[in-house]
TrEMBL record:
Belongs to the methylenetetrahydrofolate reductase family. It comes from the Eukaryota. The chain holds residues 4 to 323 of 646 of the full protein. This is Methylenetetrahydrofolate reduct.
Length: 320
């Protein structure tokens, strides 16, 4: 991933997509068909999520291997390191390597829902431990990404912990341990992202780091409110009002959603002087919204006209 990003021309922007492994075989087949069509959008890479504690390990590895080997996509496998054991991590890294996967997004993972807070295990307590472990076991074989939080990371429901100043020393630790790029948590407040970028760049260790904003296309009002709540992403008043007023009209929400994300991309592009080279879409395995954003965006300059290949079957996959 790092090599591909660094070899882009200065006026080129990339896009990347996050997918989660569907639960059923039928869902998996549907996703592959969709993924093949999404190749036309020309993502620089795709990422495959990892269920907390390794709960989706087999399916995540299956999907990642298929994307890398069969579809020829540069694939980033997410990997979490808490509430799991070393064998699961060793197995995942070794299978990733044997399937030609060269990129890992090294994450801590969320605490389990049943516990107020989890008990750290002795091998891995934070994402940095996983970054170090991968480096120790595999040297430079894997290009490693880590997570960043434009509004600060939140553990559980305690918003008081949300502060970028608290996270930055740990982010630096992850970079110094060998991480090559950062993908951010989703956000809708572009000013918060721009401030985050500015603060990060003021640290010498982060001044040149590849920082990839994570964006979630808005598909329905319900998904939007649920996602912002779960991710603790704040929503500027104008966006909240527009979407709330349109909430009963799905088509209106979708169309506003495209404009909102397009504005965010334009704003970032205009204020970061070529330092932000691409955008990562939390596309929730859906194709249409992301295709519409890319087709609308002057920054991402339509990579291909997708209208013909976009069907109306988004919900079938989303509900898998
Ligand atoms: P860390 O970097 O370990 O940070 C977690 C918290 O601990 C932060 O508050 C940080 O300030 C603090 N901290 C860090 N290091 C230390 C230290 N050494 N000492 C004390 N405190 C420290 N979850 C999944 O389960 N599966 C996924 O596939 C997945 N994909 C994600 C993709 C992206 C792009 C993002 C942004 C998140 C993803 N998550 C995923 C969620 C992620 O696992 C959670 O947000 C998790 O709570 C934190 O992970 P982290 O890697 O940021 O942890």
């Amino acid at each position: 991933v790092k090599e591909k990003i660094l070899s882009l021309k200065s006026n080129e922007r990339f896009i990347s997509f996050e997918f989660f492994p569907p639960k059923t075989d039928a869902g998996f087949r549907n996703l592959l068909a969709r993924l093949s069509r999404m190749l036309a959008l020309n993502p620089l890479f795709i990422t495959v999520t990892w269920g907390a504690g390794g709960s989706t390990s087999e399916k995540s590895l299956d999907l990642a291997a298929t994307c890398q080997k069969e579809l020829g996509l540069t694939t980033v496998l997410h990997l979490t390191c808490t509430n799991t054991n070393k064998e699961i991590i060793d197995d995942a890294l070794s299978k990733a390597k044997s399937n030609g996967i060269r990129n890992i997004l090294a994450l801590r993972g969320d605490p389990p829902r049943t516990e107020e807070y989890w008990t750290p295990n002795c091998d891995f307590n934070n994402a940095v431990d996983l970054v170090r472990y991968i480096k120790q076991q595999y040297g430079d074989y894997f290009c490693i990404g880590v997570a960043g939080y434009p509004e600060g990371h939140v553990d559980g429901s305690d918003n008081s912990q949300q502060s970028i100043e608290k996270d930055i020393p740990y982010l630096i630790e992850k970079i110094e341990a060998g991480a090559d790029f950062i993908i951010t948590q989703l956000f809708f407040d572009v000013d918060k992202f721009l401030n985050y970028e500015k603060v990060l760049r003021s640290y010498p260790q982060l001044s040149n780091i590849i920082l990839i904003p994570g964006l979630m296309p808005i598909t329905t009002y319900k998904v939007f409110t649920r996602s912002t709540k779960l991710s603790h992403a704040s929503v500027p008043d104008d966006i909240a009002t527009k979407l709330h007023d349109a909430s009963v009209d799905d088509d209106k929400v979708k169309s506003l959603g495209i404009d909102i994300i397009d504005d965010i991309i334009t704003n970032i592009n205009n204020h970061t002087d070529n330092r932000i080279r691409g955008y990562h879409f939390y596309c929730l395995n859906l194709e249409k919204a992301v295709a519409s954003i890319i087709n609308k965006s002057n920054v991402l300059l339509p990579i291909m006209d997708l209208h013909e290949s976009v069907d109306n079957n988004d919900d079938a996959i989303a509900s898998d």
